[in-house]
Known about the structure:
Layout: H1 10-22, E1 32-41, E2 44-52, E3 61-69, E4 75-77, E5 82-83, E6 90-92, E7 97-102, E8 105-114, E9 120-127, E10 135-136, E11 153-156, E12 162-166, E13 172-176, E14 190-191, H2 196-199, E15 212-221, E16 224-231, E17 237-243, E18 251-257, E19 271-275, E20 278-285, E21 297-303, E22 334-335, E23 338-339, E24 341-343, E25 346-350, E26 354-358, E27 365-372, E28 377-385, E29 391-397, E30 404-410, E31 420-425, E32 432-440, E33 448-456
Antiparallel strand pairs: 1-2, 2-3, 3-4, 3-5, 4-23, 6-8, 7-8, 8-9, 9-10, 11-12, 12-13, 13-14, 15-16, 16-17, 17-18, 19-20, 20-21, 22-33, 24-27, 25-26, 27-32, 28-31, 28-33, 29-30, 29-32
Beta-L-arabinofuranose (FUB) is lined by residues 34-35, 50, 59, 95-96, 111, 150-151, 214-215, 267, 269.
Amino acid sequence: MKIPFKVISWMWVLCLITFFARAQNPIIQTIYTADPAPLVHRDRVYLYTGHDEDTATYFRMNDWRVYSSADMVNWTDHGSPLSFETFKWASGDAWASHCISRNGKFYWYVTATDKTLKRPVIGVAVSDSPTGPFKDAIGKPLITNQWGDIDPTAFIDEDGQAYLYWGNPKLWYVKLNQDMVSYDQKVGVVEVPLTKESFAVRPNNTQRTTSYEEGPWLDKRGSLYYLLYAAGGVPEHLAYSTSTSPTGPWVYRDTIMTVIKKGGAFTNHPGLVDFKGKSYLFYHNGALPNGGGFRRSVAVEEFSFNPDGTIPRILPTKEGVTTSAAFLNPFQKTEAETGAWMQGVETKTQGNTGVYVTDIQEGDYIKVRSVDFGAGAKSFQASVAAGGTGGRIEVRLDSPSGQLVGTCPVKSTGGELKWKTAAGKIKGATGVKDLYLVFKGGQGALFNFDWWRFASK
Ligand code: FUB
């Protein structure tokens, strides 16, 4: 997605460079993303999102996306392994979703409109990998309860019992069976009482008297269950309730994130994970250029639970996560679609190559945070494809105009998807630095970019 720069003066350019050098929220800049659902699997956080189309003026959403991170600051784009078209019974509306793992499989619960019922229902896709490919697990919707079947969230308790919560304006749950693709028919669909003790009073509304709106997220710490949700109505804020049981009764606790006044969307949607000893709240806003209520973007903040187990008030920030949970090893092959900030570029998927970076133009760049060059790097390699004359990759440190430690020339490879390895010498890259791959070469689309790697001294 091209972020338009309005060049008024060199001062303004400097301000923008400083802003983008620090900004890390929203964490995905190449497309609009919404309804975050993070999952910790082994040593990575996988982030499942919805996708607001670029020109959407309503919730125009056709597919879901996956990203992952080992350090909570750099995110790798895994493309779209699931769309509403995966479900033969669905006609569109790829709304909020949640993926969890059990017995080596990944179950992705999604909202989509049912062709026959002509309203949202909940389906489930399954895969052997967190990044897909996913297929429809049962060939039909899992939940066809009533109007309001949106926003599924799944949770597996320590005793092995799994739950699926969902709903707007009501809140329901089922007890999922061990297979994760069916539910306990004896218990059936249970409606959660929306009492003021559980969800607080919604002022001035006789239809919807409590603050629960949508987007539930169920979690547990110690023996306490946490239900996070979008509250309001619109504009939504994030709030939570707790219980000593996964099925309630719930006790309203507090607001987590107030309505985002500047750069917000009229919805919000919580997702919570612990990763490498820290807690993270995912949410969405409307902060990318041309963004808003139907063109949203996922963001994340690090936070700590209060000593008494309550969740503090969490502020939405532009900086996002400031401390990397790990350093990136530049001597291993890194997918080009990995970064803390992607300025100007887009990503696409191709059969053999997978996801690659495209629409690279003069001055665009990829920022990769906390790269550990150790004693130093001597060369840089990049897998590139150029149908035209190509350009070059400037390897810079700590800002888009920071220390130039090398240049990798990119010549024509004879085709936009004809991949060749280009290389350049590196001097002066040592220790832990933020890496900026800055693209140069004149007008128009310069080349495509699949992966990079440094060689150590
Ligand atoms: O993304 C479409 C809808 O907007 C979701 O299902 C809700 O949670 C709200 O974020």
